């Protein structure tokens, strides 16, 4: 039995990809390593999900369960839980995926593969936090698991490093559950999360935000007793003499997400050093024919609504009959932190194509232009400003493109 | 001890400017007393007082003005759990040396008890080193260290098979850092010959063929006898086998005092009661000098020496599949007591870099600092330019139990008749442990011979069934094992691919692991790139399910190292 | 004059709101919702609240809930404390009401993850 698609990961990206890939009734398999589907959304009990997708402000579980319910209705979609992929290979054009589960080692075969395996959190060891390694140092996602899925509190007096969304959400969550959040520290000179989260998670609860500061040292042998914070310069290097000791019993580290791509790499998939995910075309297909990457495995999203979108794109492409040879055109860019997709398959261009990008810097006003062979073919103004933590979506009507075309996206910004 | 030796030391100290230090003989060693401004000077005096021929050791009691030594980390618990116990042999210290001794002694018809002040085995040096099974080349060819190293090295193959602890012997490269060093090879070869250490000269061409992009290439040497092991897993395996053969291993038990009448050690006072052993075995690592003193034969002092190491992602495994270090001439002042570290391909496929070596006054400070890590990275990058610091997934520090003689103390005490010391064991302690254990067993038998006939147990179980590493098995073997036990098929630690079954095995093992770090040391869950981010809550739940312990009482470490402080929604009045 | 961040949608528009003669005027909003938000925020701020409550079910010991709408901001901490007193003992479905009227606000507290289906898992 050869599936039309094997989707690795049963979170929002994988669920949507499977639904779209199985739209025409082809057999689709979702492999999920946890005991329940839904991915990280299971523990994201806060709301704000689905504003774009459903026009409603849902919590993570609600958003995920809409897709789970749909998947469970579809007879052609098989969902395997507590199955873990141990190897992937491509043999004679067919993907062979091996899993381990309580049934043993199983081999599954499919025509296409979708990497929807999300990301992991950057650890305290990756941001140069030194000192001891006591209990009480944990990443925000792990803290979220303890609080929201196990009903347990990881600490009573917390310092949070990192002003990304997860850190901000946890600052509020911990406060509501009876812990004291002493402050949120951010190494950059600008906060990392969505502006509205700064407001409703920190300002609402009088939790101070300290910019250009980082945690350098942890004290405490068995349990955290204190942390040392230090001011940093624009290169995030500590400034001697600015050290300050803060007594606390917990350090929550929220310093970024890293797409999980060990599996994709094992297949030889080409990666984008900026997104840390696969290089894809507008159908979310990677450099390996028939292998797609969607969701946070592709690049770290701010909104799950966009995760569902790109998953839908991939799934639709899988369900469609036209999957011939590709003609890939790389897209150059300037002024962006990154752009997805990084290349276009000009054989399957649609009237309108969707791009996602992050600005390289914060601008009060920005202008994005697309050039074809040096000629401007698209322009969009951003009067409300752009910043790296907030991913933008672009819908562009592209003219016909040829193999030799030079396509370039340029973002210019101003700060007056 | 010869009068002349004391005088020589007095002269040497005066010559170096230390005029207010008293030097006298004690217990056959040299006792230094006085007060100095800086610790560096205390060390210098200690080194000047080394007298290998006529002295049993330097007892350095010189204090540093204004410095108060930190008290030994002691467990919180205080009860009489071990009150009145009378083991034949009491081993103090649960590192690899103590565990190896316990296993060795458990081969005999004697009662064996091991006390460890921490919550688990291998908490200090034994889990903070590069896991090397040393070739022995950088050791003084006439030293005790090298004798135990060579014997231990030879015992490792059998030990590995018996205890189910994997080892690999991929040798060690030592690169010359300047062309002039090549001339030294004939001396190295001769030196190696004294202890039958296989060695090979490598030309520049051979180095470039065998090592990818070396930091310097002026030729080098290869020592085939070097290898790697997981030092904490070996410690656990030795201890488990000892327990299976009747030994008792007690955690959270610190020795606070030993009553001795100048001839025999009697009552051993711990925070969990008084123990009355027939034989006391000192394997207390960084505190082995304190234990020796308590027992009445404190003829040496430990001067702790820190080391910091970093572990790189398995992705960096292409850097080497062996060990690479650089050649370092031993200076006459003996200031360099480490080969400068290098890079090691660990038994698990990670790359380990380091260690550094810095004298310290603190015996148990395992906090790392950015400066130390940066120094390690910069140093190793010279050796291996392809190394990427972005591949570092974790770093740690440890403290070596170094005597001033920089030598092992493995002896039956000539003063306290029932005291055996396996003290001052630093590198190559991991390699030497099995050999040290054999000698300690011999001494133990000799001491007990007066009281009972010590014989080998006929029913000694010499093999240990290891916890299977599912990931390492062939697909068929793995499938078969899962069919027998489905829990082996469910992956909990996704970075290292560790199953629920393996974690359950660690919880139920002969020396049970009930903490996240304990499980990590036994089955590696939590050692991967996410450093336990995904699996810590799952493992906490598994421990709770398997033992009935409430999740809020389960810790990363023992003692106060609980992961959770309570349930949510505890009312804030 | 107040600087506010609109929290209605991910845009997080930076608003500048001025109250003059009891009337609120807003600039910086990308849509109408921003005006309503600014008005409320300055006069009677409201928040939606999400949290968890305990259940009696071993398979799902902690269940997520949220307010079906917004409650006055000054009642948020009281609601958080109230959640600690609730223990769901029936196999409710996603969307079911857990509290009919939160602290007299008229706003419901609803379950955001299905309990019933999780109990019938093997």
Give a topology summary.
The complex is a heterotrimer of chains A (416), B (573) and C (122).
Chain A: E1 2-8, H1 12-21, E2 28-31, E3 47-49, E4 58-59, H2 60-73, E5 77-80, E6 84-91, E7 94-101, E8 104-115, E9 119-121, E10 130-131, E11 137-139, H3 140-150, E12 152-153, E13 157-161, H4 165-176, E14 180-186, H5 195-202, E15 209-211, E16 213-219, E17 226-231, E18 244-247, E19 250-253, E20 257-259, H6 262-266, E21 291-293, H7 304-319, E22 328-334, E23 336-340, E24 343-345, E25 352-359, E26 365-372, E27 375-382, E28 392-397, E29 407-414
Parallel strand pairs in A: 1-2, 1-8, 2-5, 8-21, 10-16, 11-19, 13-14, 13-19, 14-15, 22-29
Antiparallel strand pairs in A: 3-4, 6-7, 7-8, 9-20, 16-17, 17-18, 22-24, 23-25, 25-28, 26-27, 26-29
Helix pairs in contact in A: 1-2, 1-7, 3-4, 4-5
Chain B: H1 3-15, E1 22-26, E2 29-36, H2 39-48, E3 58-64, E4 89-92, H3 96-105, E5 112-115, E6 132-133, H4 144-163, E7 167-168, E8 172-175, H5 185-194, E9 200-202, H6 204-210, E10 220-223, E11 227-229, H7 231-244, E12 248-250, E13 255-260, E14 265-270, E15 273-275, E16 279-282, H8 288-295, E17 305-312, E18 323-326, E19 342-345, E20 351-354, E21 358-359, H9 370-383, E22 392-400, E23 409-412, E24 419-423, H10 429-448, H11 475-484, E25 491-493, E26 498-499, H12 500-507, H13 516-523, H14 535-547, E27 566-567
Parallel strand pairs in B: 2-3, 4-5, 4-16, 5-12, 8-18, 16-24
Antiparallel strand pairs in B: 1-2, 6-11, 7-11, 8-10, 9-10, 13-14, 14-15, 17-20, 17-21, 17-22, 18-19, 19-20, 23-24, 25-26
Chain C: E1 2-5, E2 14-20, E3 23-27, H1 32-43, E4 46-47, E5 50-55, E6 62-67, E7 71-72, H2 76-83, E8 87-88, E9 97-99, E10 109-111, H3 116-119
Parallel strand pairs in C: 5-8
Antiparallel strand pairs in C: 1-2, 2-3, 4-7, 5-6, 6-10, 9-10
